[in-house]
TrEMBL record, chain A:
Protein family: Belongs to the type I cytokine receptor family. Type 3 subfamily.
Compartment(s): Cell membrane
Residue ranges of the TM segments: 310-333
Protein name, entry field: Ciliary neurotrophic factor receptor subunit alpha
Chain coiled-coil ranges: none
Gene Ontology CC annotations of this record: ciliary neurotrophic factor receptor complex; CNTFR-CLCF1 complex; external side of plasma membrane
Organism annotation: Cephalopterus ornatus
Pfam families linked to this entry: fn3
Membrane topology: Lipid-anchor; GPI-anchor
UniProt entry tagged with the keyword Plastid: no
Originating gene: Cntfr
CDD domains for the chain: FN3
All residue ranges annotated as the Fibronectin type-III domain in the record: 177-277
InterPro entries xrefs: FN3_dom, FN3_sf, Hematopoietin_rcpt_L_F3_CS, Ig-like_dom, Ig-like_dom_sf, Ig-like_fold, Ig_sub2, Type-I_Cytokine_Rcpt
UniProtKB/TrEMBL annotation, chain B:
GO cellular component term of the entry, any: cytoplasm
Name of this chain's protein: Ciliary neurotrophic factor
Protein family according to the UniProt entry: Belongs to the CNTF family.
Biased composition (Low complexity): 178-193
Main subcellular location: cytoplasm
Gene Ontology BP term (one): ciliary neurotrophic factor-mediated signaling pathway
Organism field: Cephalopterus ornatus (Amazonian umbrellabird)
Key words of the record: Cytoplasm, Developmental protein, Differentiation, Growth factor, Neurogenesis
């Protein structure tokens, strides 16, 4: 017979050696290691104030014959604390899901039971295989003012606990973040970035249930975000980017009418278009072939490295300086 | 009159739907603001549960995705006609209750009533395009029973809450209607996959 014994952390545990008399001579082992006699009261094993490390297999052998008389698995744990429950609809109007977890582990197996009541009607929340601790429910009614009441009960061998969530249909609507966010520079536009994204694939009907979006962006070197709210469309052109600076960009989504904003999407990085340095080489070569008398360097007309708008902090000054140095160096070569 | 599926009818339908969607959005926003003001003015608890209000059309619907375009229009129209009467009654009670203190509330109520009437008109126009024409309005029901002040306030709360739900539903209904595809009229719209 396999016995499993569940005991609370801190409890005093007495194990009997099966049907052996109290005064029988026995040897107890824990995970194969002999237990000192000081823990015995007759043939009973006494464990005081048990802790988690004392979980394991306990065996009792008859004194002389070493026959195994009793074996048990001791599992030390705790009764469950109030579970944490969350319900959300990321696929409105199809349904919603609820997921839960325990704030602290119990160290022993737990079972969960969830009940969902809408008005007087009990609904079935189908458990998901993956992830565990999650179930989903299809909406039978839409646009109802009647609240949903979800009760989660967690039970283990040492006790039980529960929590209840009450909400209305609209309140739990929260889409997944937008997908496939892409940010690209715009050729010949040093202050623009073109951002595009897609509706989250879990949102079943963006035509009838359109999403609106929130875009945030900032150069990596600054902490302050810029925000733009967009009521339709899945693209946007940033027109006030600092030239030459790498940007971090994220997008969030929300149903147009109800619910809350999604989490931010995965961040994408992009740098606005800048003039290619090789243009300077081209100009310098032209200077060489046309006239040896040219004494001043010609700055390529499209060079905007030192554009006023691009100057941000001390970094930009270095850029201007370096560009000037490069141009000057080429000109010196070809005079 | 152009046939239900002619290009001009399709354009008119799309136009009416687009305007209706905008109107529903504005209406919802105004009703939500009105709800906040109403709860505060009337000294109510925002989360108070309200017993079923007689004559209040519930926005809740089963198998919403399977409704035909005509069903949507008819249900919406019946609802907004009912709201027109309920809001008019609320306004009347409002005027009887208090004078100056609730003038702003009364004005907000009247503005919402106007929007509800406008929306009902949009729905009637859309039904005419379906070659169905709107059903004639029902005759006035029996005169309202006298109600205590608190009961009136709770009814008002129920009416506004349900109207806020309807405004959301109506926008969705019109978007379904505006979707290109076979027979938004009598043929069933594609069921949710």
């Amino acid at each position: 017979d396999i016995h499993i014994q569940y005991e609370r952390v801190g409890a005093d545990v007495t194990m009997k050696c099966g049907s052996m008399d109290w005064d029988a001579t026995v040897t107890w082992t824990a995970n194969g290691t002999d237990i000192d006699e000081s823990h015995l009261n007759g043939s009973y094993l006494i464990l005081k104030n048990v802790d988690l490390t004392q979980s394991g297999q306990y065996s009792c052998y008859e004194g002389s014959s070493w026959h195994l008389k009793y074996q048990t698995y001791l599992r030390v744990g705790t009764p469950p604390r109030e579970p944490v429950l969350m319900c959300r609809s990321n696929n409105y109007p199809k349904g919603f899901y609820c997921s839960w977890h325990l704030p602290t582990p119990t160290y022993i197996p737990n079972s969960f039971n969830i009940s969902v009541i809408h008005g007087t009607k009990e609904m079935v929340c189908e458990k998901d295989a993956v992830p565990k601790n999650r179930c989903h429910i299809r909406y039978l009614q839409l646009f109802s003012t009647v609240k949903y009441k979800v009760t989660l009960t967690v039970t283990n061998a040492l006790g039980k606990n529960f929590t209840t969530l009450t909400f209305d249909e609209f309140a739990i609507v929260k889409p997944d973040p937008p997908e496939s966010v892409v940010a690209k520079p715009v050729p010949n536009n040093p202050r623009r970035l073109e951002v595009s994204w897609q509706n989250p694939s879990s949102w079943p009907d963006p035509e009838s249930f359109p999403l609106k979006f929130f875009l945030r962006y900032r150069p990596l070197i600054l902490d302050q975000w810029q925000h733009v709210e967009l009521s339709d469309g899945t693209s946007h052109t940033i027109t006030d980017a600092y030239a030459g600076k790498e940007y971090i960009i994220q997008v969030a989504a929300k149903d147009n009418d109800i619910g809350t904003w999604s989490d931010w999407s995965v961040a994408v990085h992009a740098t606005p278009w800048t003039e290619e340095p090789k243009h300077l080489t081209t100009e310098a070569q032209i200077t060489e072939t046309t006239s040896a008398s040219t004494s001043s360097f010609m700055v390529p007309p499209t060079t905007k490295i030192c554009d006023k708008g691009a100057v941000v902090g001390s970094g930009a000054v270095a850029v201007c300086w370096t560009a000037g140095l490069v141009v000057a160096a080429y000109s010196v070569l070809f005079i | 009159m152009a046939g239900a599926d002619s290009p001009s009818a399709a354009l008119r339908r799309r136009d009416l739907c687009a305007r209706g969607i905008r109107l529903a959005g504005k209406m919802r926003s105004d009703v939500v603001d009105l709800l906040d003001a109403y709860v505060e003015q009337q000294g109510l608890d925002a989360s108070a549960s309200v017993a079923a209000v007689e004559g209040l059309p519930p926005a809740a619907v089963e198998r919403w995705d399977e409704q035909t375009g005509t069903q949507r229009l008819l249900e919406n129209l019946a609802a907004y006609r009912a709201f027109r009467a309920l809001l008019a009654q609320m306004l009347e009670e409002q005027r009887e209750q208090l004078g100056e203190a609730d003038a702003a509330l009364g004005r907000a109520l009247a503005a919402v009533l106007l929007q509800v009437s406008a929306f009902a008109y949009h729905l009637e126009e859309l039904l005419r395009l379906e070659s169905r024409g709107p059903p004639s309005e029902e005759e006035d029901g029996p005169p309202p029973q006298p109600r205590g002040l608190f009961e009136q306030k709770l009814r008002g709360l129920g009416v506004l809450r349900e109207l806020a739900q309807w405004a959301v539903r109506s926008a969705r209904d019109l978007r379904q209607l505006a979707k290109p595809g076979p027979g938004t009229g009598s043929a069933p719209s594609p069921a949710e996959s």
